[in-house]
Amino acid sequence: MATKPSRGAFIVIEGLDRSGKSTQAATLLERLQSRNIPVKFHKFPDRVTPIGQMIDSYLRSKSDLDDHVIHLLFSANRWELAATVEQTLNSGTHIVCDRYAFSGIAFTASKPSQIPFEWCRTPDISLPAPDLILYLDISPNKAKERGGYGEERYEQEEMQTRVREVYRRMREETMAVGSNRESENRPQWVEIDAGRSVEDVGKEIWIHVEPFVQPSGISKPIGRLWM
Ligand code: TMP
Ligand code: MG
């Protein structure tokens, strides 16, 4: 049995639709579980809760909502789970999370309604911050070739191109030197070329994840987003 770390690591996987996040999250989960490393999986949107059901209906174009309203629902859907996330991490269990607040900003800020970036960020301020963000980078053109593309709202090349730009901006801001936050308390943002084989992407992900899931655990406290 692996010993329990002081607290678990919060690992978020981000990327465009069809960048392979769900596949890679499953692979990573298996890797951790096969090593008896305690881990829990979350996915946002969590379509099961009442708020999640509204989001699901919107994404499948079964209902329409004002862009601000859907943005706030996505954020509320994270806040619903925030206390659970903290408890899980504090109990020494790692979390692998398919999408988080970065998706929230990237997608809303990419809409034709041009909602300001700062407005998009506000509702997620002070959510538990991830320790590691694995950003699976793929060209919208390549993503389009993958199965199932276009089934849901936002799965259009033009939109995804803008989303990729916003992700780039967030990456730069997260990694920027001279930010007022302590560098050691800043989440680590890693960009991974997701245009390669599932195996190659999985291997690279593991190289980045391994240092975060050592038995010694993570000693720094859980961070807060954008604080
Ligand atoms: P999924 O394909 O990972 O289930 O995500 C559904 C869509 O919702 C995807 O196009 C990204 C988008 N999204 C937002 O617009 N805001 C958010 O906060 C999240 C988590 C996802
Ligand atoms: Mg999708």
From TrEMBL:
Annotated coiled-coil segments of the chain = none
- Spell out the protein name for this chain: Thymidylate kinase
Q: Which UniProt keywords apply?
A: ATP-binding, Kinase, Nucleotide biosynthesis, Nucleotide-binding, Transferase
The pathway where this protein functions is: Pyrimidine metabolism; dTTP biosynthesis
| Superkingdom per UniProt | Eukaryota
GO cellular component assignments:
cytosol; nucleus
What residue ranges are annotated as transmembrane?
none
Q: Which residues form the Thymidylate kinase-like domain?
A: 13-205
